[in-house]
Design a protein that fits this description.
Keywords: Signal. About 10% of the residues lie in helices and about 55% in strands. It is mainly beta.
Length: about 230
Amino acid sequence: MKKFSLVFLLLMLLFSTSPAFANPYQKANPAFRQVKVDDPKIQFQIKGEAKVWEATLHYRVKAGKKIVAQGFKTASKGAPQWGKFSLDLTLTKSKVKGKELTLELFEESQANGSEIHKLTIPLKTIDNKKYQNQAFRYVTGSTQYIYHVKGEARVWEATYHYEVSDGHNILKKGYGTASNGAPKWGTFQQTIKIPKKKMRVNGSIILELYEESMKDGSRKNRYFQRLDQFPWK
C-alpha cells in the first residue's frame, strides 16, 4: 500500500509540473487552484571592505561570458581608508542556468577611467571563502534561492500552510493568509527563501500547500507542486 501511495504521489508531481499535461487531481482540489510558480531566483548577499577613490566601487556579474548585472556602490569610507560595502545581487534562473557565475569588483582610474584593481570571484564558492587584493578585502557572502508562489485558496479563516522539502528533509515551512476565507475563494502570494546550504545538489524541490483540520489539526486538501529542479541546466 505504501509503495502504491508513493507511485501515485510521483505521478501527481509529474503531471502537475509538465507543460504538456494538466493534473486532474490538482485541478479538483477543493482548497487550492490556479497555483503558479514564478521563475526561480538566486540571490547573493555580498559584503566586504574596499579602499577605492571617492569610496566608489564598480561591480559586474557574468554568466559565462555574458554580463547579466552591473552597477556601482559607495563604501562607507574612501581611500586611503578602508570602507565597508554590501551588495544584494538577485538573478533569475532563466538567465543564468547552466552557466558559471562570476563577480568582478573594480575601481575606475582617476587618470583615464580604465578599470583597475579588478577582483574576480567565482560565486559558487562565495559562501565558503574570503577574497581580497590591494583594493578589496574580506569579501565574502551568502547565497539563497527565492521562490514566488501565487494562486487562489479557499480555506478556513483564510489561513493556508505550506511546507517545502527535497523528499528527505524539510527545508522550509510556514503559513500565509489569502484575501478571503472559505467559502469564498481568495488570492494569495507567498515568497519562500531557502539558503543554498540546505539545498541538494541533485533532485526536485517540492512545495506542499494544505489547510489544517478544525477538528484535530491534521493536514487536509493537500496540494503538491514542484518548485525547482537541481542542478540548474
